[in-house]
Structures are given as structure tokens and as C-alpha cells.
Amino acid sequence: MRNIKVIALMLSGIFTGTFLHAQETLTLQEAVKYALENKAEAKKSKLDLENSEYKIAEVRAGALPQISGQGSLTYNPLIQKSALDGALMGRPGETIMVAFGQPWQANAVVQVSQQIFNQSLFTGLKAAKSTREFYQINNELTDEQLIEKVANAYYEVYQSEMQLQTIENNLQNTIKTRDVLKGLVDAGLAKKIDLDRVEVAINNLLASKQQVINGADLRENALKFAIGMPITEDIVLPKETFDIKADYLSAEFNLDNRTEIKLLDKQIELLELNKKAMISNYYPNLSFTGNLGYLGFGQKFPIFNSNANFSPYSAIGLNLSIPIFSGGRTKSQINQANVEIRKAQVDKEDAKLGLNLAAENARAQIKNSLITVDNNRRNIELAKNVLSNTQNNYHNGLATLTELLDAENALADAENNLNTSLLNYKVAEIQLIKANGNIKSLINE
């Protein structure tokens, strides 16, 4: 039987945080934990969660004082002159042109502004907490979807191993038959054509074995990709994985515990806050502003010039903005927000229907799989008995070679059917665990 061993996984664990010794097998729990630390989806989801904190900080920044500094230096080669009535200077009837200003002017000012009442900003601050919770729930959903994907890929690899073992057992039985038949042919007690038929059967089994090996390699690579493991790493699965737990059938479904529903609820909550932000456009805005500056001017470069004139200045004020008429734009925005909320509610109801359908299908699949597994196990015992009796009859000349080969094939088919039914059960079990909102329990089993 083909052995798959963990060789370099320990080195990978040093860099990824998942530490598996070279001689240990890769259990489902280890595979899931490895995926949650290394798979791209899990990493990106955690980065989205980190990025949400920066988005929240950006919103909160709007409620804090905004301070800025500015500076300017201006040179006026030609200063504009203004016309004055000469009578003001004792020269009636004349127009006197006077230049106001200096060729050089420098200005430095610090400005500060603070929102005092801004309903849109306040709504955004309320949405900050919900935004964080939304990304946290989305991260949980990403983890759950990844766990489901890994579990399915894991059991498919295990099924390939079981199929390979079945073919190997069948091959060994056929080789034993070939060896016995060869001795009979050499002794002149059996026909050469019967030996050739057995050789053909062995060659067919070897071809089937190679196909299963190739398929197993592909499934192993798919599992490695699913958990974010380098394809060059080697893995080995434990001997026993397909445990039957019929108690899952008695579990009650609670859709409110499903992460998908929690995420939709949080999305609706954010849409409600978005609607309030639209409504806030009807409210006035009040803010405080202030500045403190320093103005320098003179005939020459005013900086580091003792002959230049300098003058400080400052101003404080309140800015009030009152919306009066926007042409119906705000009302249209509110209506659009209402439509988005209703669409999200429809999505939630549809999601509930889909989750109920998936849960009932999983429960029905488990019931059918339990019956099929039980039937296949009994069928294997019957096939073993038939093969044993046929072998005895063949050795005693009471059965044909065709009957013997058919009995061996029947046992192999029964074992393959059991493997398939066990995989179907495990897939349905994963879906049922997910339906109960306990998919993360696979990490701690």
C-alpha cells in the first residue's frame, strides 16, 4: 500500500506557527488549524478585520479638532494703484494714484476647526461599532467556509486511501489464485487459458491501482491547496477517520446561530445607519473655527529683515449651515436607502430558506447514508463468505474460474460501495454540523 509521510511539515510549521512533527499524522483538526493560519482566504479576512479598525479611526477623526498650518511668501513686482479724490488731501479737482501694499509679503497662519453639531458625523460614529462587528462576523464566516472546504477535501483523500486498500486486497487475492493456478498448470492439472485469464485480471487490477494512485495524488494536492500547504510537502492520514455519530440527527436547528444570518442582520443594521446618515442632511451643521497668523511685509525680502514690518492677527467664529432646499435630492437618497434595506431583508429571508433546505437535505442524507452504510457492511460480510466458499469450491473443482473472479470482484465492489457511502455520510455530517452553527467544533473534536 502506498505510504504518504510527513517529511518537511515541521519546517513549514516553524514559519507558519503550525508545528507538526515529521512522524505524526495529519488529522482533520490539524489540517483545519493549518488552513486557518496559512490559507489566503483566512489571511485576507484577518487583514480586512485589521483594516476595519483603520476605517473606524478615520470616521472618529472627523469628531476631533482639525488643525492645519499654512505659510506663503509673495513678491509683487508691480503694485496696483488705487485712485483717490484729491480733495481728501487738499488738492481738489485732482485724482491721486496711490499704491497700497509692499513688494514683499510673508504670511504664516495656524487654523483650527471643530465640529459642534453634525448629525451625519454623529451617525457615522454610531456606525463605527457596527462596522467592527460586521468585519468580525465576516471573518468568522470566512473561517467556517474554509473549515467546510478543508473537511470535504480531507475526507476525499481518505476515501482514495480506502479505495487503494480495497484494490490492493483484491490484487493480493488474485495473485494468490494465480500462483495456485500456475502450479496446477505446471502439473498439467489446469488449462493455460485459465492462467492467462487470471494474468489479465491482475493486469487490470494493476491498471486500476495506478489510476486510483493518480487520483489520490490529485486529491492530496487539492487538500494541500485547500489548507495553504506547499504542494511538495508529504502528508499521511490516520488509520481510522470515518466515525459514525448518529446523535447528530437529534440536533435542533437554530438559524439565529448561523453566521450567515448574523452577517445579514449586521448588514441591515449598517443600512439602517446609512439611512439615518441620509436623514441627517436635513439637520443644520454648526462648527467652530479659529486662526492665529503673522504677517510680514516690506520693500525687501521680509524674512530675517529687521527693517520689515510685522503684524500678528487672529480671528475666531462660528459657521452655521442650514439646509433649505436641495431639489428633492435628500428625499431621493433616503428612498434609495429604504430600497437597499428591503433588498437586504429579502436576502435574509431567502438565506433562511436556503439554510433550512440545506439542513433538511443533510439530515435526510445522513439517514440514507446510515442505512446504506449498514447495508454495505452486511453486503461485505456476505461477499467475503461467497468468496471463501467459491475459493473452496474452485479448489475442489466445483466452481469455475469465472465464478471465482466474479466473487473477488463482488467483494471489491462491496468494499468500494462502503467507502463511497462512508464519504457521503461524512459530507452530510459536515453539512449538518454547519446547519447547527457548530462547524468550528471540528477544530476541537
TrEMBL record:
First and last residue of the signal peptide: 1-22
Keyword Transferase: no
Record-linked InterPro entries: OMP_efflux, TolC-like
Intracellular or extracellular location(s): Cell outer membrane
Pfam families, sorted: OEP
Coiled coil: 373-445
Keywords per UniProt: Cell outer membrane, Coiled coil, Membrane, Signal, Transmembrane, Transmembrane beta strand, Transport
Transmembrane segments: none
Keyword Amino-acid biosynthesis: no
Alphabetical list of PANTHER family matching this protein: OUTER MEMBRANE PROTEIN TOLC
Family: Belongs to the outer membrane factor (OMF) (TC 1.B.17) family.
Name of the protein this chain belongs to: TolC family protein
